[in-house]
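To: structure desk
From: M.T.
Subject: fold request, one chain
Message: Could you run this one when you get a chance? Sequence is below, nothing fancy, just the single chain.
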Amino acid sequence: LTGVRAKIKAKDYKSAAADLYAIIDSGVQHADVYNLLGFSLRKSGDRAMGATFYRKALDFDPNHKGALEYQGELFVETGEIDKAKANLAKLVALCPQGCEEREDLEKAIADAGSKAKTN
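Reply: Done. Structure tokens follow.
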């Protein structure tokens, strides 16, 4: 997944998604693949399909920190703050000492709260 991660870092989400679909078509089923595909699709504007692949990632691994974070960020984007907070609670349980995924989702939720107060 190194090449895919490089494309994502370069914000070439459509190309990353194409590579990830090819990986899935080759028979690979893995939470990381589904999570990255969900992220790539969400970032390229297809939130519905992104949500589908986050669910698939979490079906394979309910404790996948990346999928919990990214799905939570999608919930924030769509105004489903309670669902985002539920994902955050799972990350707090998984990362009691803190982790990047937890911190990123905490920030996304806090930022959404700040925006709501200024509107």
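Reply (cont.): The chain has a mean pLDDT of 96. Let me know if you need anything else for the meeting.
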